[in-house]
Amino acid sequence: MWREKIMDILNFRIGTEEEADGSLHPIVTSGSAAFGILLRSALVMALAFAVIAITERRDLSWLFLFMLWGGAVYPGWKQYQAFEQRIKKIEEETICGSCKYFDEPSQLCRPYDEHVSKNYIPCEGKDWEAKKYEK
Ligand code: SF4
Predict the structure, then answer these.
(1) Does residue 6 sit in the same domain as residue 38?
(2) In sequence order, what DSSP letters do the residues of the chain get, joined into one string?
(3) Do 87 and 99 belong together in one domain?
(4) 109 vs 58, higher pLDDT
(5) Which atom of ligand 1 is nearest to the CA of 102?
(6) pLDDT at site 69
(7) Same domain membership, residue 70 and residue 106
(8) Does residue 68 share a domain with residue 112?
(9) Is residue 106 domain-shared with residue 60, that is, in the same domain?
(10) Residues within 6 Å of ligand 1 by CB
(11) Are residues 29 and 72 in the same domain?
(12) How far is the CA of 129 from the centre of ligand 1 (A)?
C-alpha cells in the first residue's frame, strides 16, 4: 500500500481513473506535481551527498544539478503541463468546467469532495451553478 503511494508521488499522480474504453489514466494535480518534484529533489540530493561522501569527488557536484533538472524539475514541469491540458479538457468537455463549485487546482467538486472526470460528474448535473453568477 505505502509502496504504491510512494510510486504515485514519484510519478506525480494521485491515482488513476478509468477511461470510456476501460483503460486507466493517471490523475495529476498541481499539488501532486509539486510534491513529486520535492520528493525527487530530496532523493537526488541524498544521492549526491552519499556519492560525494563515498568518492570524495567534490569537483563532480555540478553533475547533480543536471540530475536535479533531469530527474525532478523537468519531469515535474512536463506533468504540470499535462495537468493544465487535462483541466482545459475537463472545462471544455464537462459541465463542471463552468460550475462555481469546481476547484481547478485539485480537479475536485468542492461540495462532494470528489474528483471530476469526463466520465464522472459527482452530482450528475443536479447541483450545477454557473461561475459567472458567483460574485
Ligand atoms: S456541483 Fe456538480 S456540476 Fe458543479 S462541480 Fe460539482 S459535480 Fe460538477
Answers:
(1) yes
(2) -HHHHHHHHHTT-SEEEE-TTS-EEEE--HHHHHHHHHHHHHHHHHHHHHHHHHH--GGGTTHHHHHHIIIIIHHHHHHHHHHHHHHHHHHHHSGGGGBTTEETTTTEETTTTEE-BTTB-TTTTTT--BGGG--
(3) no
(4) 109
(5) 5
(6) 92
(7) no
(8) no
(9) no
(10) 95-96, 99, 101-102, 109, 111-112, 116, 121-123, 125, 127-128
(11) yes
(12) 8
Residues 82 and 98 in one domain: no
Give the residue numbers spanning the domain of 122.
94-135
Q: Do both 51 and 15 map to the same domain? A: yes
Q: How confident is the model at residue 19 (pLDDT cuts 50, 70, 90)?
A: low
Task: Supply the pTM of this predicted model.
Answer: 0.68
Q: Pick the more confident residue, 13 or 77.
A: 77
What pLDDT was estimated at residue 20?
60
Q: How far is the CA of 87 from the centre of ligand 1 (A)?
A: 14
Mean pLDDT of the chain: 83
**Mutation pick for ligand 1 pocket among 99, 110, 117 (CB with most ligand atoms within 8 Å):** 99
Among 94, 107, 112, the mutation site with the greatest number of ligand 1 atoms within 8 A of its Cβ is 112
